[in-house]
Prior knowledge:
mainly beta
Amino acid sequence: MNLLQELEAEQMKAVRAKAHPEFRPGDTLKVSVKVVDVTYDEKAKANKTRERLQAFEGVCIARQGAGLNESFTVRKISYGEGVERVFPVYSPLVDSVTVVRKGKVRRAKLYYLRGRTGKSARITERVDAAGPEAAA
């Protein structure tokens, strides 16, 4: 490992206190994002900042990059309109990522979902062979 990779690995450990679960494109994710609201208070003549967590739930359609530059794209349908958001994996604004359900897909990039709505946009659920059902 060269010096650059060592520094990058150090930074990844420093930024991410708890690791995200393993997820792939096709999985439905719930991403908790820190949102900072800044308002100006007239009485105090100062800016007030308030942090809150906002959930963004949708299908992971792509993962790109490596190391510190790794990011993933999540797509959801909101009020009949498709909304996509790109999240850096090692961003301090991404509080947590939870896998709601695992999807069975055969591609790494699911950009074809952009042109689909309703039943044709559905992804079948993946059942892992190493699960508790396989032991029985």
